[in-house]
Design goal:
about 350 residues, alpha+beta, Conserved hypothetical protein from pyrococcus furiosus pfu- 392566-001, ParB domain, 9-stranded mixed beta sheet, 6-stranded antiparallel beta sheet, 10 helices
Amino acid sequence: MATVKPFRAVRYDEPKAGPLESLVAPPYDVLGPAEREAYLARSPYNVVHLTLPDDYERAGRLWREWLDAGVLVLEEAPSFWWLSQTYEGPDGVVRTREGLVCSLRLEPYESRVVLPHERTHAGPKEGRLKLLRAVRAEVEPIFLLYDGALEGPSRSPDIEVELEGVRNRLTRLDGEPAPELAAAHFLIADGHHRYETALAFHREDGSEESGWLLAVVVATEQEGLTIFPTHRIAGRLGGMDSAEPADESALELLQRAPVLYRNGRAYRLPEAELDAALVERFEPRDVTYTPDAQEAIAAVDSGRAEAAFLLRAPTVDQVRAVAERGETMPQKSTYFYPKLPSGLLFHPL
């Protein structure tokens, strides 16, 4: 069964580091080169200096220097934390999603305590492993789903910051979380590469401390939990088999079926359990991803791409069913919005 515990967090000391707005950033894997440079320029202490460094050893030196200088401070006592995120989704609806921030004991997938749902690639894990060796801290949380309900605190937050239109509020918890978490099984929503990297590091390090990682546990029984689609933009296309021409516009057709958009025309794709599983049969090349269907269509209309695959979002139940069968979905099959912010709390080993 899952084991969670409070932890002594490392946090920015704003009087020395500067305002939190200049220090936090989205996760490393959603930042392109231009966004990375913009966040690096916000502050010499911005978290991206740790999450996407030019050199992993330099990230380790910065971590130690910031601790020595008091830019980062270690909390006196272990705590659980409660994260509340208020956001407007791509669909224009304002929601609030909440979750428990904790230290989670690592378990191999074979134990069925933590379940993956997406395939991973070796490249990102190699980089994350080098970073973990150099810093010896979890500098970003992973996002887990818990099939149940959790209740948060009613008092004012200890930390509050806005990041890319999302209001993040973090509150220290005094008591223990819901006791049913001790018997819980978790599904990874975001952070597959980081979880597998932490497992690999624990195997080579062998210490008790490396057997834990930073996690945000989000209950599925809340209106604020949403999954949005991740559309595919293909620079080149291998074939058009099984795509049926449609008279409707791409966005109209998308209300009922997955869509292939090419040469200004929409093509209906066949039905499947998961829309993302249909894409690979068309052998797309030079694929990029976006949650914005209009952006995907514009890429084709401008000539920057040959085709776009407009997909419907899977449900949480569909994602869990795949994971419980021991299967994995294609990469970028889910887009849980908003992303968890990096830089609010760090988890030293």
